[in-house]
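[job 0417] fold request received: Probable D-serine dehydratase
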Amino acid sequence: MKNEHKHELFEQYPQLNELAKKATVLWENTNWMKNPETTLFTMAEVDDAEATLQRFSSYLKVAFPELLESDGLIESTIKEIPAMKSAIEQAYDVAIPGQLLLKCDHALPISGSIKARGGIYEVLKHAERLALASGRLKEVDDYAILATEEFQSFFQQYTIAVGSTGNLGLSIGIMGKKLGFNVVVHMSSDAKEWKKALLREKGATVIEYEADYSVAVEQGRQEAEQDPKCHFIDDENSKDLFAGYAVAAKRLKEQLERTNISVDEAHPLFVYLPCGVGGGPGGVAYGLKEIYGEHVHIFFAEPVASPCMTIGLMTGLHDAISVEDIGLDNRTEADGLAVGRASKFVGKVMETYISGCYTVSDEELFTSLGLAMESEGLFLEPSAHAGMYGAIRLLQQGQSYLEKNALVNHLPQATHLVWATGGSMVPPTMRAAYLAKAEEFN
Ligand SMILES: *Cc1c(COP(=O)(O)O)cnc(C)c1O
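[job 0417] inference complete; emitting structure tokens
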């Protein structure tokens, strides 16, 4: 981006100055709509994803016995976290009206992060397409046959490639290798050693880059283009990933109903989603808005060093602006969120869907990490703690949003849902290191 353009942008969007200084801000989306529409995506694609996952349930039970209990569904629970709520209220001297819920995607089976939704879905959909086209599989078959030797060697002719900061690679790698595919994961410099080691142990090829996520993705895309038998999972543009993530919204609706949690005018639902390139939180946000319309209020959470979706939406430039353009270095301990340039596809859909974005500092992430362990015995990876600050930011910096949308009086009946996006796969030694670091901030 040219310097003279930057100057104009900072004048036009003064909040960029605060973001450039790594301040913790809440940006309110003035294009937010009660019942938005988009031409870029449909709920039918989400229904298809749900049906595909259902067809694969018998296979998944054979491939991953941990899924026997859920009858082959990859799903997480919701739970109240009252002790964490008190801990946050005390630590930050705020009262949070309403209840605080956690969506436990950190404990999703198979790969322990939100990527177990979109990532695994895209691998399964691709496998199904190949198997159907070969005549080896019919839609009416019991998909458990995909676990047989015949299919293993069939999939061995094909490669799946992906660029990742870590968790997407992990999901694609574990699922792809289980089916028999060759898997190549292009890892950014942020990716943690243990994630690379685990992938290699599973038989995936891991290619490491000194550069950040965007470069890893671009290299992966280029290499995959040379090979007609290679499918590239494009974290920046994939509608399949998005559809897989969005399935969570339909399932959440059922979970809230089962636990008698209402979502209506008198009971607003606030959802706080950690955001990297945008696909995971975007898919969930899309689905939830389609279901709940004006009664759901969705905020994306980003590290102060990597607010790519915030600046993309604020300026309307989407992937034409990067965090480096405003002088930020994209360096954060929240490895899953270390993305400098947001997905244009997701940003475009989100223009009228999300209520806003906010930023969190690494110190806050570690403070929350310590508080969650102390209060609830709950461990989440640093990225996932970005969601914990949603209620605080909204109450302290989102007054105009609350007033404009007549939410103030309904806050005592509100539900704040923090989307816990990852953590259960973090090995004990890393956990201990994170907790030690958290001690420094508490
Ligand atoms: C990937 C990831 C996110 C964000 O998802 P995007 O699709 O990159 O926006 C959030 N939290 C964790 C732990 C992740 O791994």
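[job 0417] notes: The mean pLDDT is 96. The chain is about 45% helix and 10% strand.
[job 0417] exit 0
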